[in-house]
Amino acid sequence: MADVSAEGPPRGANCAPPGGSERAQAASVGVVSPLGHATAYPDAYDASLLFAISRAPQRAQIGLRGDLPFTGADVWNAFEHTWLEPSGKPRIAIVTLTVPASSPAIVESKSVKLYLGSFAQSRFADDESVRAAIARDIGAAVAAPVGV
Fold this sequence. Notes:
It is a single chain. This protein is about 25% helix and about 25% strand. By secondary structure, the chain is α/β, with parallel strands linked by helices. The strands form three sheets. It has a three-stranded mixed β-sheet. A two-stranded parallel sheet has the order 1-7. A hairpin with a 5-residue loop joins β4 and β5. The longest helix has 16 residues, at about 125-140. It starts with a strand and ends in a 6-residue tail after the last helix. About 25% of the residues are buried. The model is unreliable at about 5-15 and about 15-30 (pLDDT under 50).
């Protein structure tokens, strides 16, 4: 079981570069989305499971460039998110993620599921450490502040 701190730099995320289809982008850098592939479930906290997808190519296809003509956010709910207290006692919470629509990227949903699942056998000092780690990691993946 991993002991995890909410401090420190983001651990990074896999990301398909801007331009072209997601599959072509990913293949060009040797990174492939976990979507549609068999995956092992992680047994320790791992921010590198997050797979970011640039919003720019899809927005360009519909003629959106520069400032967006709308505001808003993507809101994701994770029910029964679990982690361990320092003593090893399991904790559970509902997590709501708010990613601004203006963020340069979004995270692929299966990668979020795997990432959040990676907390289950990892020890965190307190609830705030869990919240801070999620905000930091997903914020780094989407290159924007994320509400947790």
